[in-house]
Design a protein that fits this description.
Number of domains: 6
Distance between the termini: 90 Å
C-alpha cells in the first residue's frame, strides 16, 4: 500500500477476487466491477503522481481532489472487506442433529444471497462516486497543472561555507577521515586511489566534514573539484561539465560542451583530462547508485594517489562506492558546546554562558545532537533572555512553517522523506502513532504493517510478508530515518530489537500525517486532534498519548482502522462497539494490575487482525473465535488461555500467563499450524506436573512454519523436557530465532544434547539460551560451519577451553555475546593477534559490538604483537588493564581487541581489588577501538567497602573514558550486595598469598642488596 494512493493498492486485487466464481455475484455486478477497476487504475496512477509532489508545492484544488479520491478508496475497501467478512462468517460448532444442520445451511444460503444483492447495490452507488471523482479530475485538468514553484535556494548552501573551526567536534571526524585516507601512515598519501564514503542522517554535517578534509588536503594535488549532485540531478552531463570546469577553469569555463552528443563522450573527455594527474574530487550529496556508477566510470584509477570523497544519506550508495565512514551525531558535551558557541559568538566566549538547567537540556534534547538543528535553534534564541527560552521552546514545532529557519531545516530533512519509495513512506508515516522517545518494538511494528495491508502477502513469492517487513525496516534504518535500538531485558534475559524516531523526523511525519489525514493524535495538549484536513467523521488511524479518554473526542470513529493507546487510562472509555472496521487494536502500558474492562464487544470486531493488550490482566470471551482474520495476538496476563486454540489462523502469538494454571492452553494439541512466531511465558503454577509441560514441548514440533520461538518458564527445564525440546527443534527447519529462559537454572548435559541430535538450521541468527547451564561448550553445533549467520548468542556453560573460546571468536557474523561460565579454575587466553584459521589474517570477534562476560575476571594482556585477554572465574571481579609479565599497556600494538565492540558490560564485586590491581588512566580500554558505552555494576560490601574507594573506582572508569579516543559513555550502578562468605574467604586467602609473595620478593631484594 502507498499512502498517496489511499487504499487503491490493496483494493484493486480485492475487486479481482470478487470476480471469482466462488462468490457467485450477479452478472451486472461483475460488469460494474470490471468497469470500476479500469477507472480506479487511472485514479491510482494520478494519485501516485500527486504523491511525488511535496505538500507545499501542491495547489489547493489538487490537495482537495487527492483527499477525496483517497477517502473514496478507503470507503470502497471497507465495503469490500465487509462483504468478504459477512460471506465467510464465524464458524459454528457442528451439530449432531441432521435437521438442525439442514435448516442452518438453508438459512446461511438465504443470508448470503441477500448479502450478494446488497453488495451489487453498493457497487452501483460507488460507481457513481468514482465517476464524479474522475469527471472532476478532467474538469479542472489536474494533469496539466504543474506546481507553481517559487524561487527557492537550497537551504544547505547557507551551511556549506561555514568555517570548520566554527563547528564543534568536527576536528575529530576530520582527522578520522584523513587517517582512513592515509591508513595512518603519518598523513602520507600512497599512490593507490582512495575512496571515502561519508554517510549519515540529513543535517549531521556530511558536506561540512567533506569540505574540511578537502580544504586541508587539496594543496599538493594537480587538480581538484567539489561538486554537488542532489536528489534529482536534471542532467548527468551538467555534473561532468561542473567537474571539468572546476578541474581546469581556464580551459573549460567557455568550452562548447554542446559538441558532446551523449554522456559517454563527456566521460571520455574527463578520463582523458585526468590521465595521469593526481586529483582530489568530492562528489557531494549523491542519492542514487545508478548516478554513482556513471560518475565512477569517469574517475580513472591511474595509480597516482588520487582521492575521491562522496557524501550520501543512503547506505546502499556508500556500500557501492566503498570506504564507508558513518558520521555520528554529536556527543552531548559537544552539542552543548556548539549550541552556546552559536549563541555567544564563539566557543571561548560561550564557556562562561553555559547554564546547566532543565530548559537548555530540553532544547538540546529536541535537537537530538544534530548540528543543523542545534544551529537553527541557537539562531532562534539568539538575543533572547534565558527567561524567554522555555516559552519559545514550547512554541517551536519542527513540523510547522511559522519560522523560516525552522522551515529551512525541515526542508533539508524532508529531502530524505521524499526520496523514499512509496511503500517505505507509508511505513514511516505509521510511526507517528507513537509518542516522542517511544521504544517501538520491531516485530510488533512489522505485524502492524501487515495488519494494515501495507505489506501484501503473496503466497507464490519467495519471501513471506514478515520477511519483506524486516527488509523494509532495515531500509529505513540504513536511510537514517529511524534509529535502531537493542534493549537487553535483564529480568527475562531477552534481547528486544526496535527503533526510535528522531524528534525532527517525528515532527515531520506527524505534520504530513495530519495534512494528509493519515493519523489523528489525541494527546494531553488540550486533548485536541492533530488532524487538520480530514473530512468530518473521517478518522482512519487514532492514537491516544498520555491522556484520559474524553467521550466527546470519540464521536464519529466508525472508520477507524488502527487504534493505538500509549500510557493512557482507558479503563472504560474505548467505544469498541463503534470500531466496526478496526484492523489494529493496541493498548500499551495501561494501568498495571488492573483488569482490562473494555473487551465487552471485542468478538464483534470482525475485521480485527492485530490485538495487543498490555499492562493489565485480560479475559477474552469465548466468541473470540469469530475473529477469522486475527493474525497477531499479544496479551499480558491472559487469564483464560484456552480460548487461544479457537484462533487457528494466528501467525503470531505472544502470551504472558503469569501464575495462572496454563496446562489447558492446548488440550487437544497445538492446532495453530500457521504460527510463524510464538512467545509464551509460564508462571510457577503453570503446570501441575511434568507431563503437560512435556506434552506442550512435544507439540511444538508440529509448528512447521515457526521462525521465532521464545519460551520462558519460572520452573527449571528438566532433562526429560530438554530431550523433548531437542526432538521438536529438529522438525523446525525454518527457525531463525530461538530464545529459552528458565528463571531457575537448569543443568544440561552437553553430551546428552549431542546424542539426542541437537541441531539448528544454518540460517538461525539468534540463539539465546538463558538459565540452561551446559556442562561443556556445545562446539558440535555452535561453530562457524554450522551457524554461519549467527549474530546474537547468549550461553551459559560450566567450563570452556581456550580452543572453544576461539571457536566463538571465529563466528563470522557474531555481534552480541552474553557469556556466562561457572568454572572456578584459571583458564583461557585468547589472543587477538592470532591469525584466524580461515586464512584471512583477521582477528577473533571481528564483528562483535556488545560483549557481556559474566561473572568473569578479565585481564587484558598487551604485547608488542597485539593484545590478548585472559578470563577466569575467581570471585566475579572484572579487572581491566592490569600489567602482566612486566609489559605495560598502550605501547606499539599491532592489533585491537574485539575491533567493533560498541558496548562492554561487566561487574565489579571487589571494589578494593579493582582499585588496587588496575594501573594507568586507560585501563586498557583503548584496545576496544570502537567502544561507545561502558556499563558497570558495582556490588558494594557495606562491611569493607569505603565510600571513598567506590568513588575512586567510578573516577577511574570516567578517567579511562576521557582518555579513550571515542570518549565512551560510562554508566555505573551501585548495588548493596555483601560478598558471599566463600568469596570473602577466597579474597582473604588471595590477599594473604599476595602479601606473602610480596614479602618474599622484598626479602630477596634485601638479600641481594646486602651481598652487593
Amino acid at each position: 500500500m502507498e499512502y498517496a494512493t489511499g487504499a487503491l493498492g490493496t483494493l484493486l486485487p480485492k475487486l479481482g477476487q470478487l470476480l471469482r466464481d466462488e462468490y457467485r455475484l450477479q452478472k451486472g455486478a461483475k460488469k460494474n466491477i470490471e468497469d470500476l477497476t479500469k477507472e480506479l487504475e487511472c485514479i491510482q496512477a494520478a494519485l501516485r503522481d500527486v504523491g511525488e509532489v511535496p505538500l507545499d508545492e501542491r495547489s489547493e484544488l489538487l490537495r482537495i481532489w487527492a483527499r477525496d479520491a483517497r477517502e473514496m478508496s478507503y470507503d470502497m475497501e471497507d465495503m469490500v472487506d465487509t462483504f468478504l467478512v459477512r460471506v465467510q462468517g464465524p464458524d459454528e460448532r457442528p451439530s449432531k442433529r441432521k435437521v438442525k444442520r439442514f435448516f442452518k445451511k438453508l438459512w446461511d444460503d438465504v443470508t448470503k444471497a441477500k448479502i450478494r444483492r446488497d453488495i451489487g447495490q453498493e457497487i452501483n452507488d460507488i460507481k457513481e462516486r468514482v465517476k464524479e471523482v474522475a469527471e472532476r479530475r478532467a474538469r479542472y485538468k489536474f494533469d496539466d497543472i504543474t506546481p507553481a514553484k517559487t524561487f527557492s535556494v537550497d537551504p544547505r548552501i547557507a551551511f556549506l561555507n561555514t568555517k570548520a573551526t566554527d563547528l564543534i567536534g568536527i576536528d575529530k571526524a576530520r582527522e578520522e577521515v584523513i587517517t582512513k585516507l592515509t591508513k595512518g601512515d603519518n598523513n602520507v598519501l600512497s599512490a593507490q586511489q582512495r575512496i571515502i564514503s561519508i554517510v549519515g542522517f540529513g543535517g549531521l554535517g556530511k558536506t561540512t566534514l567533506a569540505k574540511a578534509v578537502y580544504d586541508k588536503l587539496k594543496g599538493p594535488f594537480d587538480c581538484t573539484a567539489f561538486v554537488s549532485v542532489g536528489r534529482n540531478p536534471d542532467n548527468i552531463k551538467n555534473i561532468f561539465r561542473n567537474i571539468l570546469i572546476q578541474l581546469d577553469k581556464g580551459r573549460y569555463e567557455k568550452f562548447n560542451f554542446s559538441i558532446f552528443d551523449d554522456e559517454m563522450q563527456l566521460i571520455n573527455e574527463l578520463r582523458d583530462f585526468l590521465g595521469n594527474k593526481r586529483y582530489f574530487i568530492v562528489i557531494d550529496d549523491i542519492w542514487d547508485t545508478k548516478a554513482w556508477k556513471i560518475i565512477q566510470l569517469a574517475l580513472v584509477d591511474n595509480n597516482s594517489g588520487s582521492i575521491i570523497i562522496i557524501t550520501t544519506r543512503k547506505y546502499e550508495v556508500a556500500q557501492q562506492a566503498g570506504g564507508i565512514y558513518r558520521l555520528e551525531p554529536l556527543s552531548d558535551d559537544n552539542s552543548r558546546k556548539l549550541f552556546f558557541a552559536r549563541m555567544y559568538d564563539g566557543e571561548s566566549k560561550a564557556s562562561n554562558h553555559q547554564p546547566d538547567d532543565e530548559v537548555s537540556d530540553k532544547i538540546l534534547k529536541k535537537c537530538g545532537d544534530i548540528p543543523l538543528a542545534i544551529i537553527t535553534m541557537a539562531s532562534l534564541l539568539e538575543g533572547k533572555h534565558m527567561e524567554e527560552w522555555s516559552e519559545i521552546l514550547n512554541s517551536i514545532d519542527f513540523g510547522s512553517k511559522e519560522n523560516q529557519q525552522v522551515e529551512d531545516t525541515m526542508k533539508i530533512i524532508s529531502f530524505s522523506y521524499y526520496d523514499l519509495p512509496p511503500h517505505l513512506r507509508i511505513c514511516l508515516l505509521y510511526l507517528s502513532v507513537f509518542p516522542e522517545d517511544y521504544f517501538i518494538e520491531k516485530d510488533a511494528l512489522i505485524w502492524m504493517w501487515i495488519a494494515e495491508d501495507f505489506i501484501v502477502h503473496k503466497k507464490q513469492g519467495i519471501m513471506s510478508s514478515f520477511e519483506i517487513g524486516e527488509r523494509w525496516f532495515s531500509e529505513l534504518v540504513n536511510r537514517s530515518m529511524i534509529q535502531l535500538v537493542e534493549k537487553w531485558d535483564e529480568g527475562s534475559r531477552i534481547l528486544v530489537h526496535g527503533c526510535q524516531v528522531h524528534d525532527m523526523v517525528l515532527d515531520l511525519i506527524c505534520s504530513i500525517s495530519s495534512e494528509e489525514n493519515f493519523v489523528t493524535i489525541l494527546d494531553n495538549k488540550e486533548g485536541a486532534s492533530s488532524s487538520s484536513s480530514s473530512s468530518p467523521g473521517k478518522v482512519y488511524r487514532l492514537a491516544l498519548h498520555n491522556n484520559r479518554i474524553v467521550e466527546s473526542h470519540m464521536v464519529g470513529m466508525g472508520r477507524v482502522r488502527s487504534f493505538i493507546s500509549c500510557d493512557c487510562d482507558i479503563d472504560k472509555g474505548i467505544p469498541l462497539s463503534s470500531f466496526t472496521l478496526i484492523r489494529v487494536l493496541a493498548i500499551y502500558n495501561g494501568v498495571f494490575g488492573r483488569k482490562h474492562r473494555h473487551l465487552k464487544h471485542i468478538q464483534n470486531l470482525l475485521h480485527l487482525r492485530y490485538l495487543q493488550l498490555s499492562g493489565g490482566e485480560a479475559e477474552l470471551p469465548e466468541e473470540i473465535g469469530n475473529l477469522k482474520f486475527l493474525e497477531t495476538l499479544h496479551v499480558y496476563r491472559l487469564l483464560n488461555a484456552k480460548v487461544v486454540s479457537l484462533l487457528t489462523q494466528l501467525r503470531c502469538l505472544r502470551l504472558d500467563l503469569g501464575n495462572s494454571v496454563s496446562a489447558t492452553i492446548f488440550t487437544d494439541g497445538i492446532k495453530l499450524t500457521s504460527l510463524e512466531e510464538l512467545e509464551v511465558c509460564f508462571g510457577y503454577h503453570a503446570f501441575k506436573s511434568q507431563e503437560p509441560w512435556r506434552r506442550f514441548v512435544k507439540e511444538l514440533g508440529s509448528l512447521k512454519e515457526l521462525k521465532v520461538l521464545r519460551l520462558g518458564s519460572c520452573n527449571a527445564f528438566s532433562m526429560e523436557v530438554q530431550i523433548d525440546l531437542v526432538e521438536s527443534l529438529r522438525s523446525l527447519g525454518k527457525m531463525e530465532h530461538l530464545s529459552l529462559h528458565a528463571y531457575w537454572s537448569s543443568s544440561a548435559d552437553t553430551a546428552t544434547w549431542e546424542a539426542a541430535g541437537f541441531r539448528l538450521p544454518r540460517h538461525i541468527r539468534y540463539l539465546l539460551l538463558n538459565g540452561i547451564n551446559f556442562s561443556g561448550f556445545p562446539s558440535f553445533c555452535i561453530n562457524r560451519l554450522c551457524l554461519p549467520n549467527l549474530s546474537h548468542l547468549s550461553l551459559s556453560v560450566d567450563a570452556i577451553e581456550e580452543q572453544e573460546l576461539q571457536i566463538l571468536g571465529q563466528l563470522p557474523e557474531l555481534r552480541f555475546l552474553d557469556l556466562k561460565v561457572e568454572s572456578t579454575a584459571e583458564i583461557m587466553v585468547c589472543s587477538a593477534a592470532t591469525t584466524d584459521p580461515a586464512g584471512d589474517g583477521g582477528r577473533f570477534f571481528k564483528k562483535l559490538r556488545h560483549c557481556t562476560l559474566n561473572p568473569w575476571e578479565v585481564l587484558l594482556l598487551p604485547s608488542k604483537d597485539g593484545v590478548s585477554f585472559r578470563m577466569r572465574r575467581v570471585h566475579a571481579t572484572v579487572l581491566l588493564g592490569s600489567e602482566w609479565n612486566g609489559v605495560s599497556s598502550g605501547k606499539g600494538l599491532a592489533a585491537a581487541l574485539m575491533p567493533r565492540v560498541h558496548k562492554l558490560s561487566f561487574k565489579v564485586f571487589s571494589v578494593r581489588e579493582f582499585k588496587d590491581e588496575n594501573h594507568g588512566d586507560g585501563l586498557c580500554l583503548e584496545y576496544f577501538a570502537s567502544l561507545q558505552n561502558i556499563n558497570v555494576k558495582i556490588y558494594i560490601d557495606d562491611a569493607s567497602d569505603a565510600e571513598v574507594e567506590v568513588k575512586e573506582v567510578e573516577a577511574s572508569l570516567q578517567r579511562a573514558a576521557r582518555v579513550h579516543p571515542n570518549h565512551p559513555l560510562v554508566e555505573t550502578v551501585r548495588y548493596n550486595a555483601p560478598m558471599f562468605p566463600e568469596w570473602k574467604a577466597w579474597a582473604a586467602s588471595r590477599q594473604a598469598h599476595e602479601a606473602e609473595v610480596e614479602q618474599q620478593q622484598d626479602d630477596e631484594q634485601a638479600g641481594s642488596s646486602a651481598r652487593d
